[in-house]
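Q: I'm building a small set of examples for a reading group on sequence design. Run inverse folding on the following structure and report the sequence directly after it, with nothing in between.
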């Protein structure tokens, strides 16, 4: 959900927008963690809130990297890990995916990052075949760093490339070079990683179709296992948002952005990738298991400032403030900012909205009966009649035409 309340199902992961509630840690444990289903697996997300600088499109909670900040954060993170690990309702559940994002996790030293992984493994029951993803920027990786990650059980590297054209990278505020990106992608494979994702962005202000096609062509030559193509969204509190308000840049026109999306699908599909989700393409066997958790109503615990969690139909989010996050943990409390217990009706709506990210759609055979709002069901039928949604057996999915208006469909079904 964007800052203005519009639901953006092209963006990942889903962001909590709950009302603040005065629930104590003990109440959270009783209502949420204590009620969780121990027979189901769990995902862990760790938000590492540091970057060397902020990209112009970014609106996530980050701070500029500084050694003293990192040391305090790691001490506080360890306290949060231990809080969750002390509860049998979570520490006995199988963890099938771990995702370290940010921010840029690889601004931490190899020793620091691998210590975090070791702490997670000692605190939780991590499956032997768990998918473990680390987000990275190209200029933070060396052969030694990658080798250390591989030896500590990391299975997947996600490199933030975004764009390759010099002008596009300058507009994004990126400092790495095309040569450096090419070097790191080759190095990742050479070290032994087989599961590499490359993050790309289209619809950047000033970007041309030719520039986007050149980026796609280069990436396909490197043959990563997975490619993410995110539409550039102008967030009000980002540098882009400020520049748009000042009239210094213009947003990409919708028609051009649609053309770029179609070009990506055509080129990547021809190259053997499957578009399995609105923004993601994978070779067979390389879908991102952790991110699928967000769109299929599966539970996860988020650690670190601004991280979101979803357990036993309760969504709760951490404070998006590094100092306040640490102060709460020093008092032995979770650093909660907001908590929301989802009624059955709302959970059902969310399952539909988020499930529609998947090109296979969402099985609604046991969902629609939980939604008692006649107007909602009428909206679904109207969207089908208008050619934006279609039923395929028990599944509801976006049509090819509907994918262009996925955000509008989400808004209609959320209300």
């Amino acid at each position: 959900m964007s800052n203005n309340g519009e639901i953006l199902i092209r963006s990942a992961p889903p962001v909590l927008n709950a009302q603040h509630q005065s629930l104590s840690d003990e109440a959270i444990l009783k209502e949420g963690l204590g009620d969780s289903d121990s027979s189901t697996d769990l995902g862990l997300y760790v938000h590492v809130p540091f970057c060397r600088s902020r990209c112009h499109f970014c609106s996530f909670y980050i701070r500029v990297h500084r050694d003293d900040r990192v040391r305090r954060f790691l001490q506080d993170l360890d306290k949060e890990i231990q809080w969750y690990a002390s509860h049998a309702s979570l520490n006995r559940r199988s963890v099938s995916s771990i995702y370290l994002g940010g921010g840029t996790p690889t601004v931490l030293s190899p020793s620091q990052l691998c210590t975090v992984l070791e702490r997670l493994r000692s605190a939780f029951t991590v499956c032997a075949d768990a998918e473990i993803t680390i987000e990275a920027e190209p200029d933070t990786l060396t052969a030694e760093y990658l080798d250390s990650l591989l030896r500590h059980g990391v299975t997947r590297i996600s490199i933030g490339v975004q764009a390759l054209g010099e002008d596009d990278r300058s507009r994004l505020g990126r400092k790495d070079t095309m040569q450096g990106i090419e070097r790191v992608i080759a190095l990742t494979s050479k070290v032994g990683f087989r599961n590499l994702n490359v993050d790309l962005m289209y619809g950047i202000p000033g970007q041309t179709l030719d520039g986007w096609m050149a980026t796609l062509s280069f990436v396909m030559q490197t043959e990563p296992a997975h490619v993410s193509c995110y539409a550039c969204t102008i967030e009000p509190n980002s540098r882009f948002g400020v520049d748009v308000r000042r009239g210094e840049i213009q947003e990409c026109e919708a028609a051009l952005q649609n053309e770029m999306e179609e070009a990506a699908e055509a080129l990547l599909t021809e190259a053997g990738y499957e578009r399995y989700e609105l923004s993601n393409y994978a070779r067979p066997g390389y879908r991102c298991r952790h991110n699928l958790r967000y769109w299929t109503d599966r539970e996860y615990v988020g650690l670190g400032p601004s991280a979101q969690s979803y357990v036993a139909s309760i969504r709760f989010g951490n404070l998006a403030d590094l100092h306040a996050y640490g102060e709460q943990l020093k008092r032995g409390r979770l650093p909660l900012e907001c908590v929301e217990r989802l009624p059955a009706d709302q959970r059902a709506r969310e399952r539909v909205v988020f499930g529609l990210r998947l090109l296979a759609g969402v099985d609604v055979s046991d969902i629609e009966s939980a939604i008692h709002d006649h107007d909602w069901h009428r909206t679904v039928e109207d969207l089908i009649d208008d050619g934006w949604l279609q039923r395929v057996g028990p599944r509801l999915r976006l049509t090819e035409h509907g994918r262009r208006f996925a955000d509008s469909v989400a808004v209609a079904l959320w209300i």
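Residues 1-22 have pLDDT under 50 and may be disordered.
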